[in-house]
Predict the structure.
Amino acid sequence: MVEVRLYENKDLNSVNNILSESFNIRKDNFHYDNMVEIVACIDGEVCGYLLLTKILNPILNRYYYSVDYVCVLSKYRNIGIGRKMMLQAEMIARREKAVYLQLTCSTFRRSAHKLYEACGYIKRDSDIFRRMLE
């Protein structure tokens, strides 16, 4: 049975294993009022991670959430864990009266695209441009 819950500091090592496997990155423990971290567990093992960031859209004068780092350990993929974390993220955003959820995803992550589309996300006709400053 999959349990989806909020991240706790004790989850750091497990989450870093997931982030390392999925994105070749690591994180530190942090707490910001505009961020929510979600983990998924099976039999007490943390096997999934998702980060939500609450952002003000100043034109609409409403908040939305950016969904980042949706990842599941490879041995647990394709059994609905990502979908359960996405549903939890949506519940949080709805409870906070957010106007929308938004995410970006690399073009080569086709299975992730299928997940997002299955969760009701619509691919926009846009490209992401980024200028690195460091």
Observations:
- The CA atoms of residues 65 and 102 lie 6 Å apart.
- The mean pLDDT is 94.
- The first strand starts at residue 2 and ends at 6.
